[in-house]
Amino acid sequence: MSMNLTEKLIKRRGLEFIDLDPIVPRTPRCEGFREKLKEFDLSDNTPASQQEVCNLREVLAGIYQKIYNHKVHPDKDIVITPGSRATAILICLSMVNPGQVVAIPDPGLSTYRLAAVMAGAEPFAYPLLEKNDFLPNLSALFEPPPQNLSLVFLNYPHCPTGAEADSYFYRDLINILKYENILIVADTAFTGVSEPAIDLPLQTAKASNMILELHSFGFPYGLAGLGFATGHRGAVENLKQVTKASGITPNKAEINYILTAIEYHDDIFAEYMNRLNDRRRVLSEGLKEIGWHVRNSRLTPFIWAKAPAKSTSAGFARKLFLKTGVRTRPGTDFGENGEGYLRFSLTVSAEKIEKALKNIQGKSSLYGKRGS
Questions:
Q1: What is the pTM for the complete model shown?
Q2: What pLDDT does residue 148 have?
């Protein structure tokens, strides 16, 4: 039976449909932020002026200059983008030639493969394995790099596993590829603006010569579909040209929203992380109690878990949905190396997560321990 069963059908079975699949940004609950927003017309879809966009870039440049400890030029080093996923496609279309190779993580977001295919490039999936903490084996993959390799996608904190990469990883990657004409595109959507709790790629020496960082305003600010890119100046300039030619520009409401969110960043980030960590703790501890292996992360709005079940990820996710009403994302949706895992969203309410956990715990026959 298809995973696209409707909520109505689930209810007929006496179950509540609880969707722990989508990762949906939410408007911050910060009271000061919400009060400040009342000063603006958030229905104003008028395209922002060039000066308003420049103002946002200047604010971002000031923030990231402190983080990277070197000058960030607001015009040359930053471009406002339509979010990290759409930008991945734009960067491939503007910088990758047909027949070239694009390296993509497996497991990883399907957007990277789509971006490569749309550019007429050949996707080259590199494995991310639990035994390597879901980091690529750099020497095995890139010494030497695949022939015609033009671009490498990275994604840390990683979706779907939640893995993180540190400055040593980025240093080693840069040292391996420094004599190659290869662009590294680092999707850092879950770092949080202005106060990242992990190392950012561009904090590594000489990284701006090779790396383009993609950022999103979705988490923790709740504005999906808008972000920015910074780093490699050639890639930044290409993105500026392609977004301009495509008529992609933020509107006045979005500019006001983001500038206000940045003003209240500390309060927004603290509230976001407290809420996320409470949900993560409840779900991960509850799953561990019944024998699941859970890989905890710090910043991602989801958890990556391996059920002690004997079926495939897709098969088990389907049975879990039918028996408990809880919908999750099977790991194989992110590539063949996602087999054996499920991704659970943490962007629903704490009450929904507690209800989902109770339903799962009540169906222990679904996930008898391996070998039992």
A1: 0.93
A2: 96
